[in-house]
């Protein structure tokens, strides 16, 4: 029997690149879906991936990209109207008679979440269950380690580390661990994984100050953690080129972290090891990889650049979350709630943490009293 053709969307991203590489290393044919040809897509092609360009919001392009595909990985774009791309992806999967869809979800996925992206993700969780003939696996990690390491240059070059989540704790998971876990699910297919939910995490819960201590070991000198107000972080993120909508979404996820959402029921799973046979890497291991990247290397030129950029931060445009969401006409809920405050979310996610994810029902609406 021929190996199943696997389509990976977001193939040049932080999770997509190692996912494609892992699947190819297993000898599986991979169709990498990208927005445009560039050096990253060329690197995937050199490894043996078939490269196709398509707009995730264009139903016709997606239908063409999905032809002949048996299994597909959906990585939602961080866009205000993300749900449109999910519907187009689901319709393309239906037309191609795809046998298995693995969708990147969120641990916070919740029908009444204050983040528009998260409410749409909750809809996605139910949408892909409806694709005829296709098994669906929900892949819902918590906080990515990347979110806590995008400012590692501040620590390496200037000696301080911004803390945005107070005493909130999470078990940050690396892009590489998410990728190899998703690769196992896609390689083994719907027979083993349809109808299940998997939450890969790092091996331990950490708060911001504990992360700063880890980073200090990595960079080899003292690092001062300090509580950075979100308005200032938003300016720093804008300076790094982060999209305002992504910054707005992150503001809500930091609320989740402060509220204990990512530490719920212990906050740590063995999903990575259970599926791949290798434990999840530590935050320190991930941090060492980031510290070795060009932007964080401790050179004189980088120190000067970091000093100049840090002094530019206060003069950058910020992000007014409420104003941005109104300008984008994001639907406003009468009674939004963080995930951990919702009884239905707590029930279903407690079941997942207990290892009974296959028994979790599809998302459903609940009447408010």
Descriptive overview:
The chain is α/β, with parallel strands linked by helices and 369 residues long. It has helices spanning 16-25, 39-47, 59-66, 82-96, 116-127, 145-149, 152-158, 175-188, 190-193, 208-219, 230-239, 244-259, 271-276, 283-291, 300-312, 321-327, 343-353, and strands at 6-8, 30-34, 50-53, 71-74, 100-104, 135-139, 160-163, 197-198, 224-227. β1 (6-8), α1 (16-25) and β2 form a beta-alpha-beta unit. α4 (82-96) packs parallel to α5 (116-127). The chain is globular, with a radius of gyration of 20 Å. The N and C termini lie far apart (54 Å). The model is unreliable at 357-369 (pLDDT under 50).
What attributes does this structure have?
7-stranded parallel beta sheet, globular, Rossmann fold, UDP-galactose 4-epimerase, domain 1, alpha/beta, 369 residues, 9 strands
């Amino acid at each position: 029997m021929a190996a199943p053709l696997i389509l990976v969307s977001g193939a040049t991203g932080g999770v997509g690149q190692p996912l494609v590489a892992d699947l190819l290393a297993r000898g599986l044919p991979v169709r990498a879906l990208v927005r445009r040809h560039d050096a990253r897509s060329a690197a995937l092609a050199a490894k043996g991936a078939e490269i196709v360009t398509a707009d995730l919001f264009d139903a016709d392009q997606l239908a063409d990209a999905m032809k002949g595909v048996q299994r597909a990985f959906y990585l939602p774009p961080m866009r205000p109207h993300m749900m449109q791309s999910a519907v187009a992806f689901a319709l393309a999967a239906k037309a191609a008679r795809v046998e298995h869809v693995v969708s990147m979800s969120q641990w916070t996925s919740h029908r009444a979440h204050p983040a528009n992206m998260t409410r749409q993700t909750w809809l996605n969780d139910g949408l892909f269950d409806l694709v005829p003939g296709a098994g669906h696996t929900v892949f819902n990690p918590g906080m990515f380690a990347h979110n806590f390491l995008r400012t590692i240059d501040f620590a390496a070059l200037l000696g301080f580390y911004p803390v945005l989540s107070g005493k909130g704790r999470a078990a940050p998971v690396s892009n590489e661990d998410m990728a190899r876990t998703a690769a196992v699910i896609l390689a083994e297919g719907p027979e083993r994984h349809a109808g299940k939910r998997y939450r890969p995490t790092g091996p331990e819960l950490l708060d911001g100050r504990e992360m700063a201590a880890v980073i200090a070991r990595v960079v080899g000198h003292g690092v001062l953690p300090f509580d950075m107000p979100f308005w200032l972080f938003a300016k720093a993120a804008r300076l790094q080129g982060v999209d305002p909508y992504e910054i707005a979404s992150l503001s809500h996820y930091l609320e989740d972290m402060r509220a204990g959402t990512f530490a719920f029921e212990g906050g740590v799973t063995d999903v990575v090891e259970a599926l791949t046979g290798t434990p999840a890497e530590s935050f320190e291991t991930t941090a060492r990889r980031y510290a070795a990247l060009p932007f964080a290397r401790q050179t004189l030129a980088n120190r000067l650049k970091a000093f100049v950029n840090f002094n530019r931060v206060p003069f950058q445009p910020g992000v007014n979350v409420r104003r941005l969401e109104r300008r984008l006409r994001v639907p406003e809920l009468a009674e939004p709630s963080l995930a951990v405050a919702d009884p239905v979310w707590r029930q279903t996610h407690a079941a997942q943490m207990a290892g009974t994810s296959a028994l979790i029902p599809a998302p459903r609406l609940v009447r408010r009293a």
